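*** Query protein ***
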Amino acid sequence: MESRGADDRTEAAAASLAVSLTSHQNRARQRRKIWAVQGLIALALILGMQVLNAVAGNLVMPSPLSVLRQEIEMWADGTLLWALWQSLSVLGAGFGLAATSGVFVGILLGGFPFMGRVFAPFVMAMNSTPGAAFIPLIIVWFGLYTEAKIVLVWHAAVFPILISTAAGIANANRDLTEMAQSFGAGRRVLFWQVMVPDALPSILSGLRIGAAISTVGTVIAELTMAQSGLGGLMITAGNRFQMDRYFAVVIVLMALGTLISMGLRLAERRFARWRVALTEAR
C-alpha cells in the first residue's frame, strides 16, 4: 500500500511538472509571436517614414537614416545626455513628491471614510481640471525655472496616485480586516499589515499611471516655461524646422516613457507575487 501511494505521488508530481512545462512553452511561444508582430509594426512605421519622406520631403517627414544620424551625433556631443539629465531631474523630483504625498493622503482618505467623503469633491474637482489651467498661476508663484516645473509635474501626477491609493485602501479585503479586528488589531496594524498590503496592486497601478503622466508633464513644463531639457530641444528643433533633430528627441522621450512604465510594471508583478505569498502565509 505504501509503495502504491508513493507511486501515485510520483505520477502526480510528474503530471504537474509536465503541465508546468507545457504552460511555460506556450507562454514562450506567445511571447515570440508578440515580438514578431511588434517587429513587423516597427518595420512598417520605418518604411512609412521613408515613403512619406520621398513623397513630401524632409520638412514634412525626415528619413529614418537622417534621424538615426542626428541621434548618434547628439549623443556623441553630449547634447542629449545633458538634456536627458535636466528632464530626469525635474521628472524625478516631481514624481517623487507626487508619489509620497499621493500615497500618504490616499491612505488617509481611504482609511478614514468620513475624511474621504469630505474631501472627495475637492479631489475630483482638482483632478478634472486641466493642468494647463494652473500654468499661469504656477509661473506667478514659482517663476519660470526648476521649482515651477517640479510643481507642474507634481500636480499632473499626484491625483491619479491619490485616487488609486484611496480606492485600494477603501476596498481592502473586508474578511481580513474583520479578522484582524477580532484579534484586537489596532488602526496602525490594520493599515500597515492588512489594508496597505491588500491595496498594493491599486497603489502600484496609480504609480504607473502617475509616472506616465509625469513624463508628459515634464515635457509640457519644459515647453511652456524656461526651455531646457528634452522639451527645450524639441521646441528649438521645431522652430528651426530641423525635423530630423526633432524626431531624434521624440524617440528618446518614447524610450524614456516606455522604460519607466516597464520598470513599474515589473515592480507591480514582483509585489503581486509577494502579496500572494503573504496571503498564503496568513
In short: The two ends are 35 Å apart (CA to CA).
